[in-house]
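Dear support,

Our group has been running a series of protein-ligand predictions, and this particular one with S-adenosylmethionine is the one our PI (initials K.S.) wants archived with full inputs and outputs. We had some confusion internally about which version of the output was final, so please treat the block below as the authoritative record. The input we submitted was:
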Amino acid sequence: MLSHSDCRVGLRGLPPESVDLTVTSPPYGGMRRFGGHEFDWNVFADVANELWRVTKPGGILCWQEGEEVIRTGPRKGSYSGLPTAHAMYLQDLGFLRWDRLITGVTGIRCPDAGKRYLCPPTDLFVLTKGEPKNVALLEDRLNSTVGKHRRTTDRRADGTLRIRKPYGATKEMGRRTTIWLYPAGASTTRDAGVRREFPALMIEALARDLILSYSLPGDLVLDPFAGACTTGKLALLLDRKFVGFEVHEPYFQMGAERLRVAAGAAALARSKRCFA
Ligand SMILES: C[S@@+](CC[C@H](N)C(=O)[O-])C[C@H]1O[C@@H](n2cnc3c(N)ncnc32)[C@H](O)[C@@H]1O
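Confirmed final output from the archive:
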């Protein structure tokens, strides 16, 4: 369900402790005024308080926020640091900082690229209400030694080398790291119209990976800043339920259409499974 409303109002309509997973990307400070709507500290704090209220014990909040470049004044040209301040506020509310992922799109230039390295990182804070109840870490199988026997060394407390017995590298070692980079283009979305019209899409592969990592089929997934509804689309395709809010009418329409198509595809996939 996607609602055309300010999420500060919409969230108040959700029952307490009803959401299993939130996957969201708020506006990056004042970098873009989506339909003229402000995202200042007061708006953030209202939303954060509501997110704490609606999250189930053991539930998870994935908060992806990129840095805004300050455009005027003595700090002109520098990053605002707001994502870190927001994460601290969420921690003060009671969320646990469970993980911190660095996400990015390869090939993207930083603002003022001549003075910064390529591919600006975007913080993704994984915050939990108590110990998380559903975590299924992804494997990338990048580590070619998984399952093979190899000899390794470590060091004793006095610093001298110790050769350890050969052992089979565990599955653990094939796990993805906390740095999640996606290629630009197709991994964003195949919905070409949305890619053209919406200025700040979450990468679909990222939404998919977060939903698979931190929820189960049937869980309720929330996105208070739904935009073109990438989280919602992937939630439905992965057999989760979805609730979202979008304040700006044209984006709401875009998101609603994407959800409608995803709901159809998910229903078709379910019926194929039934008759398989
Ligand atoms: C960074 S975009 C989210 C993009 C989304 N993850 C996607 O992939 O489509 C932020 C969205 O939040 C919306 N927004 C800003 N303030 C809002 C508010 N108070 N309530 C609901 N939506 C809001 C903006 O209109 C914008 O579409």
